[in-house]
Amino acid sequence: MPGPLSGIRILDLSIALTGPYAAALLGDQGAEVVKVERPGIGDLARWVGVSVNGVSALYQACNRGKRCIAVDISTPEGAEVVRALAATCDVFIQNSRPGAMDRAGLGWDDLSAGRDDLVYLSLSGFGSEGPYRDHGAYDTVIQAYAGLATNQADPADGTPVFIRQTAADKITAMYAVQAVTAALLARERGAGGQHIELSMTDSVVSFLWADCGGNELLMDADGSMASSFVQGSKPFRFVDGWGIATPTSDADFHGMCEALGVEGHDDPRVATIAERRKHTDLTGEIMSACHRAAASLTTAEASERMQALRVPFGLVVSQADLPDDPHARAIGLFEESTHPVAGRLRQPRHPARFAGTPAVLGAPSPGLGQHTDEILVELGMGDRIDALRAKGAVA
């Protein structure tokens, strides 16, 4: 069975991570994705991080399943090719700075002229309005501005801590996928196409405030609690590894104490979550005792005890070890394949499991301009390929 987005065609002019990753996820779900890259250097993601034979892991993860045409959109002929391509597509994705696509003749007004069914996604760091609209905005810039760095700050001295991954990019990609599919649904219901603007700032702030903006959201709060209700989470160190318990309910809390052999949790002052919130010092002492007790247990012993008492608990597993974890193997969490240039690949399956229209990881990421001739022929420009190359419009 084809994926849920089978029949949808996407033109991806984005680079780096946010737009390409969003387009790859949509491609997993059945959409056909054509990626436009500039001749010569291509998408910068090709040159970032771990790579084998010139193929980076980042580029593979964010561009699987796509065809690639190399076009210089700064040339009139190159812009013409992209306009012709866009006319065949349902969705157009770009993450240039605000105004750049308009100057190239590839903005919303340009591409929606004469048609009412285009879904056009503009991704940016700070949006198209406000004093920061033209600021450069890579992931760490947004982590700093939108609150991720302070959310992860060292509680002892407040030093901002940046998440060691491009979290802001990926958060925005998730919102982008949802926004595109929502716009396509609206189109199916007769609303026509539309322009979607999505900034990394909006995405990260929305993501954080769901559970990390307590005092900022409830403006009349007394400030006695941290804005993030999981701020105090601390892993247990066992004899041979690490783990984490999440004692949210009363049963969880008392079960954790029993599993670790810690006494004192029968005190009425910690009997309920309401009492524990009132008696934070005593609660903290019991939690410290739990951490001391954990140091004498193995991960296997702790896991068995926690599971027996139905305490939400998990072991800390490294990315290197996860593919061989028995649960990951049992559910087929990873898929292995071969890239014609980079060799063996191991990738997580698409996370959404559709019973009737399954998502499938696409073919290996393309080489720069790998499908240029093929796509130009499809556009009826086969007789112009040599001339377009001579002018530097395509490669």
Annotate the secondary structure layout.
Blueprint: E1 9-12, H1 18-28, E2 32-37, E3 51-52, E4 55-56, H2 57-63, E5 66-70, H3 76-86, E6 91-94, H4 100-103, H5 108-112, E7 119-124, H6 139-146, H7 148-151, H8 167-188, E8 194-199, H9 200-209, H10 214-217, E9 236-238, E10 241-245, H11 250-260, H12 273-278, H13 280-294, H14 299-308, E11 313-315, H15 326-331, E12 334-339, E13 343-348, H16 372-378, H17 385-390
Parallel strand pairs: 1-2, 1-6, 2-5, 6-7, 7-8
Antiparallel strand pairs: 3-4, 9-10, 10-11, 12-13
Helix pairs in contact: 1-8, 6-9, 8-9, 11-14
What does this molecule look like?
With 395 residues, the chain is of the alpha/beta class. It folds into two domains: 9-209 and 333-390, Rossmann fold (3-Layer(aba) Sandwich), CATH 3.40.50.10540; 236-315, formyl-coa transferase, domain 3, CATH 3.30.1540. It contains 17 helices and 13 strands. It has helices at residues 18-28, 57-63, 76-86, 100-103, 108-112, 139-146, 148-151, 167-188, 200-209, 214-217, 250-260, 273-278, 280-294, 299-308, 326-331, 372-378, 385-390, and strands at 9-12, 32-37, 51-52, 55-56, 66-70, 91-94, 119-124, 194-199, 236-238, 241-245, 313-315, 334-339, 343-348. The strands form four sheets. It has a six-stranded parallel sheet with strand order 5-2-1-6-7-8, with helices on both faces. A three-stranded antiparallel sheet has the order 9-10-11. β12 (334-339) and β13 (343-348) form a beta hairpin. α1 crosses α8, α6 packs across α9 and α8 crosses α9. The chain is elongated and about 85 Å long.
